[in-house]
Amino acid sequence: xxxxxxxxxxxxxxxxxxxxxxxxxxxxxxxxxxxxxxxxxxxxxxxxxxxxxxxxxxxxxxxxxxxxxxxxxxxxxxxxxxxxxxxxxxxxxxxxxxxxxxxxxxxxxxxxxxxxxxxxxxxxxxxxxxxxxxxxxxxxxxxxxxxxxxxxxxxxxxxxxxxxxxxxxxxxxxxxxxxxxxxxxxxxxxxxxxxxxxxxxxxxxxxxxxxxxxxxxxx
Length: 219
Hints:
This protein has helices at residues 2-12, 26-33, 59-63, 102-108, 111-116, 157-172, and strands at 14-17, 34-37, 46-48, 83-90, 97-101, 118-121, 132-133, 135-137, 143-145, 152-154, 176-178, 186-190, 194-198, 209-218. The protein is of the alpha+beta class.
């Protein structure tokens, strides 16, 4: 099964497993799939729930129950998590996750510009600002694409040009809509390739709850 899943991920950049392993703990599911990553103390499993207000350094604090923009999770890290596992606790078909294939973005825009575009986090980590490229080659011959219009900002003239190009492209693209609607629906996303976003949370859907676990890689 894992070989088939890897093949599907390589082909599409994501895999949706409907009602996968009913009743299983999300940590057990994630550890069967790959090597889990704890991004901060106590943060192995993060439960994502809509909030009308939140900390200004979070998406909820900036967008509330509205749509979240397309982004790479932890794009401000030197090496963002390779994959993310999203597992439904309480879901709705009309509050889907939107996905955009970064390969299409790279093909449509200038690879040279993206690879030379330097960005920096909006806020320092450990007292310093890391300089990060939007597009980097990886050891497996592919590339790592990072994007976050909220938490990354251009740090060079080429970065400014790339920022405008990516924003314009995203405003016109046709995303894929994937709904985590039933308990145990599980979505695995290649975080180095796909950009993802949340649709607006409609009235009566505020109890939506999705568990998230990051993976360094697949087993």
